Every structure is written in structure tokens, then in C-alpha cells.
Amino acid sequence: MSILRVQDLHKSYGKDAERRPVINGVSFELRRGECYGLLGPNGAGKTTTLKLCLGLTAPDSGSITLVGRDIPDEARQARARIGVVPQIDSLDPDFSVEENLIVYGRYFGMRRADIVARLDWLLEFSNLTAKRKAYIGELSGGMKRRLTLARALVNDPDIIFMDEPTTGLDPQARHMIWERLKALLSAGKTILLTTHFMDEAERLCDRLAVIDHGKLIAEGAPRDLIESQVVEVYGDGAAAWAPNGKTLAERVEISGETVFCYTNRAEPLLHDLSAADGLRYLHRPANLEDLFLKLTGREMRD
Questions:
Q1: Across the chain, where does the E strand assignment appear?
Q2: Which domain covers residue 148, as residue numbers?
């Protein structure tokens, strides 16, 4: 049974002739207990999709059902059963760690006694027990992110929306967050995740979708979407060698001084390269970043 269903969603901004589509016919659904990833370049429509699903803005057309509620008409009732980890921490610097959790729980109409009963578990889960009485200014970036995650769990939600939850964190903090998210999934929680980290998506997501220019352009399990091998060719002569690659690989991309060859049969490429002078090359399995760049391009986005 799906916990979130999005069907033929459209959203545009601007007036009259200046209106531009931000979401253009997006459809997907989440099964209970899975982690579903939304990937895409800056401006692709990921955050707008989350806002639509949360009922924070209304679609022009299409339908959204979240925890059995129609969005946006029943968004308030639905939000009682969800948790949200936003891109930017919005913790109250005037409150301690435990006070942030208590106040946030009160926003859901929870009794103080019920919130307090969850505090020990929330602090242990976020590895913040020793910082219980600390104020926000005393916390590191990783601690603040873990507190934001704990805050999103204060109402024991069925589904958690996470908008780039590990951006700006060091590797140790990122890995700790990943372990906490895996524990939530093991406990049967559902996660909708947006991220720019391809390794994060591969580690956590059961399924993912790539969205660009407001359209969903690929969907599936990470391993099912990643099929080919990659041979990266470097050096001053790489561009001159590129026509050889185009005859031997299914797809070739040139970026700066590197030629990327995508193929399901690398042996002919490797044999040709072994006879070429002055070229360096790397043969590796394709990964999610290769898929992402294939679908959305290598140009920079603002």
C-alpha cells in the first residue's frame, strides 16, 4: 500500500505570458517502509515537489494523497503524521537541546508528558544525550543536523521528508546520519529523500527518480538504472583519440581533457588503448553519478 501517491502534478510560477512550468506532469508513489530518492540538478523542481507534497503550496493540476489524506485540502491532518528535515536547520537558539524537542512536539498538540517520555530515546538515537542541556550555539554542525533529525521524529511520524539532510557535513557526520536513517528504515519508517550526493542515494534508496526541468526522466532501483562500464581516457592526446572511442563504445562524452566511454563490453576499448602512446585511462564500473550526468548533462546550473 502506498503512503504517498503523486499523479500528473503540474505547477507554474509567474503571470500570464511569463508563467513558466516548474513541475510538469510528475507522477510517483512511495511504498511503506522504503527510502525513495529524488535526484536532480539545482532548479530541477525537487524542493517544489516536496512543498507540493506537504501542502505548503497548491498544484495547478494533478493529485496528491499523503498518509490517506488529500493534499492540500487535508494537509494539516496529514502533517500530524509526518516529519520534515529541511535543507537549513531552523533550531531555536534561545532553547536548549531538550527544550527544542519539547517545544516542537507541542506544535503537534502533543502533551508535554508524552514528549518527555520520548526524550531519552530521541537523544540516544541522535547521540546527543550528553548535550541535553546544551544550547544551540554550543553544538557543531553535525550535532545540529542530528538534532533536526531527532526533532522530525518527535511525533513518531509514518513518513519523513528529508531535503538534502547531509549537505555541509564532514564525512564522519554524514556516515552517522546514514546509520541513523538505516535504523529508521529497519524500524519500518518511510523516507522521501532529496540529495546531491550520489553515494548517499546509492547507499540509502530502494528506488529513486531523476527529475530535470520539472519532468521525471528516470525511475527505478539504483542498480537497475546503472548498467554499463566506464573507461575514462586522460592526457593531451585524449581528444584526438576520441573518434576511436566513438567506434568502440555505445556512448562517448568529452569534458575538458577527459573522454568518457560508456560500454557494456570494455575489452575492445582497452585493447585499442593499450596500443596508444601517451594516454592514461581508468576502467571502472558505472555509478549513479554517471547516470545522473548522462540524463541531466555536465553543464553547471545556478
A1: 2-13, 20-31, 35-39, 61-66, 69-71, 82-85, 159-163, 190-194, 207-212, 215-220, 229-234, 251-255, 258-263, 280-285
A2: 2-221
